[in-house]
């Protein structure tokens, strides 16, 4: 069933900027890490899953969150790194549940270990969190096809807000584009499926922007 | 408020848009909109020389172009004041430094005097950024302040000498927030601690593109051989920059490959140790005709730019480093960088991607030899290094984070702030 564009609220383009803060908590071994996970602010857990997208980094994100990366690079514990990297925030209804899962994973590894894995003094893990400032760009789109030409010019802040931040804001735990397209009934279902099927964990924001643009372009080319 | 003419501001922003793309500048304009007219004052202790002054020279006009009423004040003190603050600097970077009581008194008196001189400006400010320890005690003279005060630490304070940190901490605790360059540098303080890396200005004389003739001119100017590879370290003559270690590395590498070394430094007006370290370096160079120890004036930005562009490899073998602007400068010019494995250099140099991290003169010598024998690799690393700086270490990113911080502080440090 098709819903006319005019019956749906326009897509409001928002932008955002993030800034990183220290929590003041640092750890050097796996037991300290477990204890810290239990007490750090929930915002810190979210930051270590997604904040890396807005940080200078050159190495390929072989492990797709900071906890897994540290397990590999700091503790040299590949088993733990693999397990932590398959912990997906979108699988949990809340960050508190995600925290419990992380603690469980680390507890299990501690049970398996004869000695407590530790990192060198200059490889400690620093728990961070972030503050996000969101602002309205004033841009509005009534018809999804109009987004196609604009998507390549969206700032990485817009991409972060609508594609990453949306995962913790929207009921579908996906992106804002899909949520908006869903309002048109099943007209854009194939595009929604493709957007929700994209795994953003290994991509930079520039790569996510290029991929989303390509999904929109392909969909509307197929329609024409 | 001395806001510049709108046309001037637009031209200023358009120049940056040519480097970064217009979406970056639009992003800054939207982020700055709620801060229009806000009075923001930066305070440090030198107008020229050193990374802090360089950053502020462009950050202030940039903020002004975005409609913020930004200004920059500099405090001055006696030789005892600078001796004391150099001691703070060394102690925050981990040296065991005893600072005698008379020097601490000179520090406190200078801050008290400067507080009176700056009272009108600082009392009216919406935001005050105090850079490094030199003006840190100013805050104690403003119990009735109306704005937010932020202490910006540019130093690697990861392992401060505790007695000096204990002296400084009470001055710092009263701030509304502090900023460190890396998470490792943050110290326990009872207020939000932001993490913001420094930046370079792509349009400054030190970093803008130069005509080839200007680059070529530096060979005769400094008696350099254009046919032989050149390794360059640009930095103040400071023991933490390990210039003597660089000479050791050069000697080890030069045994196996033809090479010339340039150490180019200037003096910062707030650094009383510079001349003593320069003498140590000259002694270590021991009249070797292939070691060029240059003492450049503070405004020799284009000369440094030309030297960096002429170099085959840029080195920054610091043993402590807050950030290392010269690393970003070298990378911006498409050079591979050999950097000390410390502080902010680790944020910029990634082995085999943008250069190499080293811990010893031997390590530096090894990487010099490795890179000099692989011209194509040098070019590839250089290209990646330039792109990495474009994405992460230009002053547009720095300004975005400052604006985000201001918006956040204005709103009471909540996790999510919606503006506009």
Q: What's the arrangement of secondary structure elements?
A:
The complex is a heterodimer of chains A (224) and B (420).
Chain A: E1 11-27, H1 30-39, H2 42-50, H3 66-73, H4 78-85, H5 95-112, E2 125-141, H6 144-150, H7 156-169, H8 176-181, H9 189-196, H10 205-223
Antiparallel strand pairs in A: 1-2
Helix pairs in contact in A: 1-5, 2-5, 3-4, 4-5, 6-10, 7-10, 9-10
Chain B: H1 6-20, H2 22-32, E1 39-44, H3 51-65, E2 69-74, H4 79-92, H5 101-124, E3 127-131, E4 148-152, H6 162-173, E5 177-180, E6 193-195, H7 212-216, H8 218-222, E7 230-234, H9 243-254, E8 260-265, H10 274-285, E9 291-295, H11 301-310, E10 313-316, H12 325-332, E11 337-340, H13 345-348, E12 355-358, H14 361-372, H15 375-392, H16 395-410, E13 416-419
Parallel strand pairs in B: 1-2, 1-3, 3-4, 4-5, 5-6, 7-8, 7-10, 8-9, 10-11, 11-12
Helix pairs in contact in B: 1-2, 2-16, 4-5, 9-14, 12-15
Structure overview:
The complex is a heterodimer of chains A (224) and B (420). Chain A is of the alpha+beta class and 224 residues long. Chain A has helices spanning 30-39, 42-50, 66-73, 78-85, 95-112, 144-150, 156-169, 176-181, 189-196, 205-223; strands spanning 11-27, 125-141. Chain A has 2 domains: 5-16 and 138-223, no CATH class; 18-129, no CATH class. Chain A contains 10 helices and 2 strands; from the N terminus they run βαααααβααααα. A two-stranded antiparallel sheet of chain A has the order 1-2. The longest helix of chain A is centred in the C-terminal third of the chain and has 19 residues, at 205-223. Chain A is elongated and about 60 Å long. Chain B folds into 2 domains: 6-199 and 394-410, Rossmann fold, CATH 3.40.50; 212-392, 3-Layer(aba) Sandwich (Rossmann fold), CATH 3.40.50. Chain B contains 16 helices and 13 strands. Chain B has a 6-stranded parallel sheet, with helices on both faces. In chain B, α9 links the parallel β7 and β8. The longest helix of chain B is centred in the N-terminal third of the chain and has 24 residues, at 101-124. In chain B, 51% of the residues are buried.
